[in-house]
Amino acid sequence: MTAFIIIACAGLTGTIFLRTALRFRAFHPKFGAGAYLKWLGIRIKGVFSKAFIDRSLKLWTAWLGERYPGWLKWIFFAFAAAFLYLAASGLFYAIFIRRGMFGLPLLAHVMGGGLFALGLAAVLMLRARTYRPDESGAAVSEMIACPVFKKASRAAVTKALFWIFATLGFVQVVTALCSMLPVFTFNTQVDLIMIHRYSALGLVLTAIVFFDIAILDRPQTPRG
């Protein structure tokens, strides 16, 4: 339990730091802690401005309209709402409540899991073909760079993130279903819960990076 809390906090903090630091480096050739913190403070303050909200809504609407036109957007909205609730409630109880989830939040979590499973299946049917591996999109962007994959293209990273999310989502569904079956021992149930938690953390980290690369920092022409 303690190990998960440490890994979750470190993972979330590290991912957010890496994404913001890369964005900072796009405008400042040299990285300095003081300059970065000052820049980060200005950006956080700007998040609550009307201009930022309007610009974010415009980007989000354009991205959503290209990929889920018409009534299909409601499928994505339901899927996104289920994911956000599952991520928020799951991580909150896993980190701050040692007893774990119980009561109405647990009931809502189970119902949200069913909606997430249906939404994930729908998204895969609608978008899997777009994210199939190929040789397109060879342009490299520093905004998606990382110490391991410095030469990765935006398209390759976006597609990899999509399939990582899909795989971890499948793990979430399977572990949730298996934990409800009265055929496993107590120790196996505990292992299933831990796998469920770690895959959920991976889902959240993957979603953060995907949102930052594919939507906030997306190019104006190609779809990603």
Provide keyphrases for this structure.
224 residues, mainly alpha, Fumarate Reductase Cytochrome B subunit, 73% helix, 0% strand, disordered C terminus
Walkthrough of the structure:
- The protein has 224 residues and is mostly helical.
- The chain has one domain (2-216): Up-down Bundle (Fumarate Reductase Cytochrome B subunit), CATH 1.20.950.
- The protein is 73% helix and 0% strand.
- It has seven helices and no strands.
- Helix 4 crosses helix 7, helix 5 (103-127) packs across helix 6 (154-179) and helix 6 runs antiparallel to helix 7 (186-216).
- The longest helix has 31 residues, at 186-216.
- The chain is globular, with a radius of gyration of 19 Å.
Strand and helix layout:
Layout: H1 2-25, H2 33-47, H3 50-67, H4 72-96, H5 103-127, H6 154-179, H7 186-216
Helix pairs in contact: 1-7, 4-5, 4-7, 5-6, 6-7
Helix content: over 70%
Shape: globular
Q: Which CATH-level-2 architecture? A: Up-down Bundle
User: How far apart are the termini?
Assistant: 37 Å
Mean pLDDT: 85
Order of helices and strands: HHHHHHH
Assign the structural class, choosing from mainly alpha, mainly beta, alpha/beta, alpha+beta, or little secondary structure.
mainly alpha
Number of helices: 7
- The CATH class label is Mainly Alpha
What CATH calls the topology is Fumarate Reductase Cytochrome B subunit
% residues in beta strands: under 5%
Low-confidence stretches: 219-224
How many discrete structural domains?
A: 1
